[in-house]
Task: structure prediction
Amino acid sequence: MAKILYGVCGVGSGHSTRAKAVIDHLIEQGHHVKVIAYGQAAKNLKPFFDLSLIYSPRFYFKKNEIQYLKTLLTNLSKSPKMIKSVYRVSKIIDKFQPQIVFTDFEPTTAIAAKLHNLPLISIDNIHRLTQAKYDVPIKYSLEAMTAKTIIRLIVPHADWYLITSFAEHQPRNKKTFFFPPIIRQDILQTKPTEENYFLVYLSAKNNRLIKLLKKISARFIIYGYNKNEQSGNLQFKTSSYEGFITDLAAAAGVIGTAGFSLISEALCLKKPYLALPIQGQFEQILNAIELEKMDCGKIFEPLEIKTIKDFFADLPRYRRNLENYRRPNNDRLFNKIDELVKINSLD
Result:
């Protein structure tokens, strides 16, 4: 069996959710896995795995928009910490002696893998921006170019790219493979219903959206404001793993930021989605574009009451289309992982 080093991006919970499913599978196959993580991923994964905490670059946001200049300058000022993390991961490699390195958009493990001449397998959804063929509206050209540059800097030259996507894509090369999204078992085992409310998920406060929702004659359950409070037709809830899944499964539809994991779970539960991409974050813009092309939801653009009312009017069509969406499973991805581990392990 193989020794595997696995690096996980700590921004949000999507990376750690996917990584946990993959790591659980690797351990079930008898492999020894050591995890490198930071931020939210470290908190999510530490109770389950042998994990080492590191520093890694952060992204900064303001008013639902990524702040590229602040992100660049702040991370440059902290480059000594990054160098120390690479050194620490290199020492872990020297001691642990892994045969393969996996990365879910975590740069220090990717850099250390190259320094030690170890095979590197990238598993994420983000690399479809650099490894897939797709058309981009001209107005998003700058965001697309910026995103591709950053992605190539974070994970340089993996040997294989295993990319999850809820839309169909053609790979650019023979080392890239596409798979359905990895959906956590709690979602797969949940039977969806339809109650008289819409789930709203925000990764950052958006008071303009809240003002619009107050003017709509519908009920909304809102996550992202870290409070339990009723305000007219709006019910705010604090973060809750089980509570969120319950509310998602019974919602009439979803309004939220265009994160890959939540859109994938909403599609799995056959929930129409009104997607509000974080401005300047092209990966979320592409998620929303692909969702709209599938005709299972729409982009929240412009941010006006009319867009919400149009979304409500189109709900019957979205629901019909969602009936044809096949619930994903992890079999094809796990089979490819097993194949790559086998050809790269020493036994």
Observations:
- The longest helix spans residues 79-96.
- Residues 126 and 283 are 7 Å apart (CA to CA).
